Amino acid sequence: MNHNLNETVDKLTKENDQLLTNVNTLLNEKEEQYKQLTEVDERLNGQTILNEHLSRKLNKNEQRFVKLEMDFQEEKLTNKQLVENVQNLKNEMDNKDKKIIEIRAQVNALILHISCGDKLKQEANEDELKQSKIIIKKTRDTRRKLKKICTQFLYFISII
């Protein structure tokens, strides 16, 4: 019986050793899984922090985008108004250029008229002038036209 008992004890000891080995293996696996779980948890925490940072950054960039979009629309409107202003100024300049051309023509005609009168006075002697009949009618229209030409000429000179 003793022999049976020894065999049973040996058998139980072997089983116990095997169970201890299995328990140690399971403990090692548990430890390894715990380490892996800790690493995964740390990476998850890192990713969570990164996601929060990226979320704040995205929100900030979205706000900047909205502001830039509003600024762009404002710049677009300003540009449109500037283009209209430039066109209006070009039209004004064209009109002023036409007036200048008209005034120059009138000034040239006035200069020609004055120089012809002076030339006539210089080249014609008193007798020739007395014998010829030159009639100059001074009417209100003549004075008005002359006054208008002089006023436009003075204006033209002031803008040059």
Key features?
about 160 residues, mainly alpha, coiled coil
List the helices and strands and how they pair.
Elements: H1 2-123, H2 126-131, H3 140-159
Helix pairs in contact: 1-3
Keywords: Coiled coil
Coiled coil: 2-106
List how many beta strands DSSP finds.
0
Structural class determined from secondary elements = mainly alpha
- Helix content range: over 70%
Q: Which consecutive residue ranges, at least 5 long each, have pLDDT under 50?
A: none
Q: How would a textbook summarize the main sheet?
A: none
Mean pLDDT: 82
Query: Over all CA atoms, what is the radius of gyration?
Result: 55 Å
Continuous helix count: 3
SSE topology string = HHH
The gross shape turns out to be rod-shaped
How many domains make up the coordinates? 1
In whole angstroms, how far apart are the ends? 139 Å
How much of the sequence lies in strands comes to: under 5%
Coiled coil: 2-106
Keywords: Coiled coil
Summary, kept brief:
With 160 residues, the chain is mainly alpha-helical. The protein has three helices and no strands.
Description:
- Keywords: Coiled coil.
- Residues 2-106 form a coiled coil.
- The protein is mostly helical and 160 residues long.
- It has one domain (2-159).
- It is 92% helix and 0% strand.
- The chain contains three helices and no strands.
- It has helices spanning 2-123, 126-131, 140-159.
- The protein is rod-shaped, with a radius of gyration of 55 Å.
- It starts with a helix and ends with a helix.
- 0% of the residues are buried.
- The model has no long low-confidence stretch (mean pLDDT 82).
